[in-house]
Amino acid sequence: MLNAASGVQKKQSSNFRLLYPEGGPYRRDLYRKHLEFFRAGKIGGERAALGGNRSGKTTMGAYEATVHATGLYPTWWEGHRFPRPNSGWVAGDTSKTVREIIQEKLLGKPTQPGTGMIPEELIVNRIAKSGVPEGVETLYVRHVTGGTSIITFKSYDQKRISFQGTSQDWIWLDEEVDEAIYTECCMRCMKTSDFAGGMVFLTFTPLMGISEVVQLYLPDGVTPSPDRFIVFVGWDDVPHLDEKEKAERLRKIPPYQRDARTKGIPQLGAGAIYPIPEDEILVAPFPIPKHYRRAFALDVGGGYSEVSTGGTGAIWGAQNPDTQVVYLYDEYFRAGAEPSVHAAAIKARGAWIPGTIDPSARGRSQIDGREMFQMYTDLGLNITKADNAVEAGIYEVWDALSGGMLKVFRTLERWRAERNLYRRDAKGRIVKEKDHLMDATRYLWLTGRDIMIQKPFTEETTTSTVTRGGPMGFAR
C-alpha cells in the first residue's frame, strides 16, 4: 500500500509537488480563491470557478482530479477526501482540445512522460482513444489504498448521449458546457457511497456570457445561487502574473471581453448591448451635493404578478452642473404591488424630484380602466412622458457610458444585474426580459436631463446622502 508521506511522494512529478507550497513567492495562501474552491468540495454538490485567462483555473481542476484519483491529499487539504479508489470523468470542448489541454495537464506531453500532474509511477494503464492520435480514452491510476481509480476522458462534441451511463464519484468540466450535458453530468453524480450529492466541478472563462449554465450559478447575473458554489478568479487573485504581463495581455483583449478574460466575470460578447468593462462605469457612492440637479425615470411593468417580465422599476440620476456628468445613485424595483405602493416608494426618495415615465403607460389600463400615467399623476408624482426612441436611446446611453458622462453607483445591484443580461438575440433583437432599469436609464438620459432640478430651498438644505443598495428585487 502506498502512503502519501512515503518515498513515492518524492518521486512524483514536479508539477504536482511544487504546486501550492507553504512558502515562497507562489505560496498557497496567495491563491486564496483556489483554496476556497477546493474547500467548497467538502460537502459535494456543484461548484464553478469562473476564471480569467491564465488565472490557473485548469490547473485547479487538474490538481483536484489528481488528488482524488491518487489519494495523495496534502496535509493542508480541506476539501472532500475519498478514502478509496474512485471513478471520475474529465471533459472539455472537443477531443482535440481535451488531448491538448486536459490530457497534457494531467499526463504531460506524449513525448515527455512524467511531466504531467499525475505522478508517472502511479499510472497503471492507458487506453487509447479511437480516432484521436495520441489521445487517451481511459486512464487507470493507483490509489494510496492499493486499489485503482479510473479517469475517463470525454468531450462535449460527443453530445449528451455519450454522458449517459454509469454513476461517477466526481466529474470535472473544463471550459463551458451546454445545459443538457451539464444536467446529465449532475445525474451521474447524484449520490456516492461517501456522501450525498456527488461532485461536479467546472473551471472556465465565461466568454458565452450569461448562458443557461451560468444562470444556474448566477440567476440574475450577479447574485450567487444559494444551491451552488461559485468563485471568481481574476488576474489580481494569483501571484504568478506580474504587472507587465497583465498590461501587455490587456492591450490585446477587446474591451467587451476584458471582464471575462481578466476577472472571470461573465460577459455577453458581441451580443452585449453595453459591452463596457464594469470598472469603467461604476463609482463608489458619495453624498449627493445639494447643487446637483436630479430627476428619476420610471418603467411600468406588466402587472402585479411575480413573473420575470413583470414589475415596476425606477432609477434616479444626479448631474454635476460643472462637468455635466450624470450619476445613477438609486434604484427601485418591485413586482406584485399596486401603483400606490410604487408611488410611495418613489416619493420617499424625494417628493420634489421630477420624473419621466415609460410613454406606453399612457395607453395601458389597470384598475377600473384608469390610465396608469394619470394614476401616477394623481398619486402625487411629478412626471412627464419620456422619449422612447429605442435604438437612438441605446446608442446615446452607450456613448455616455463609454465616454464617462454617465456613471453608476457601485451599490446599484439590480442595475448591474440587468446590464449583464441586457443583450440582443441571434437576429439582433433586444431580449426583453429583466430590463426595467435599462429602459428607465434610457428614459432618464433622453428626457430626464431636460427636467432635472436642484433641491428647492424650501426643502431641507443639508447635503443628501443616498447610498442605498440592498438585496435586488426588494423595494428600498
Textual characterization of the structure:
The protein is α/β, with parallel strands linked by helices and 476 residues long. It folds into 2 domains: 261 residues, 3-Layer(aba) Sandwich (Rossmann fold), CATH 3.40.50; 173 residues, Nucleotidyltransferase, domain 5, CATH 3.30.420.280. It is built from 14 helices and 17 strands. The strands form 3 sheets. The protein has an 8-stranded mixed beta sheet. The protein has a 7-stranded mixed beta sheet with strand order 9-17-12-11-10-13-16. Strand 4 and strand 5 form a beta hairpin. It is elongated. The N terminus and C terminus are likely disordered.
The CATH superfamily of the largest domain is P-loop containing nucleotide triphosphate hydrolases
State the share of residues found in helices, binned by percent.
25-40%
CATH class of the largest domain: Alpha Beta
Report how far apart the termini are: 62 Å
Number of helices: 14
Task: Give the biggest sheet.
Answer: 8 strands, mixed
| Spatial shape | elongated
What count of domains describes the coordinates? Answer: 2
**Radius of gyration, CA atoms, in whole angstroms:** 27 Å
What is the CATH architecture annotation of the largest domain?
3-Layer(aba) Sandwich
Strand order of the largest sheet: 3-4-5-2-6-7-1-8
Count of individual beta strands: 17
Q: What's the rounded overall pLDDT mean?
A: 85
| Structural class assignment | alpha/beta
Spans where pLDDT lies below 50 across 5 or more residues: 1-14, 303-309, 365-369, 459-476
CATH topology of the largest domain: Rossmann fold
Fraction in beta strands: 15-25%
